[in-house]
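Sample intake sheet
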Amino acid sequence: MPAEVVFYVLSSHSQQQQQDFVCKLIEKIYRSEQFCYVLIDSDQQAEQLDKLLWTFRAASFIPHQIYRESLPDFERTILIGKDTIPEAWQSLIVNLSTSYPPLKTEGQRILEILDSSEESRQAGRERYRHYQNCGLTITTHKL
């Protein structure tokens, strides 16, 4: 199966709505017995997402940690990081960064979340073209 990119285009540019969506998406990934790597740009963004995943829903538990070059004890841990993605976590990437994740050719899924701001949409168009030029299958969901 070729690599696939899924764009989620939110109808709002509210940071709160985007954060809620990201947390629910990560929770859905975990509940489907998968794990992912959340690619971010900064330590501050990693700390913020780490806190949100603990607090966004009172009854929710999503095993996660900020990746600092050491693998977690529990294999299905959601990793949050900004640099090198461990091989076992490269098959499903939630990209919240401004960079492109490393591309594999078989079975990889990359999830991109865009808000309705012009800046986000422009960056999304650039990413779309990049992924298209790489020959990836692209799906877009407008929410």
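Comment: The domain at 4-142 is CATH 3.40.50.10110 (Rossmann fold). The radius of gyration is 14 Å.
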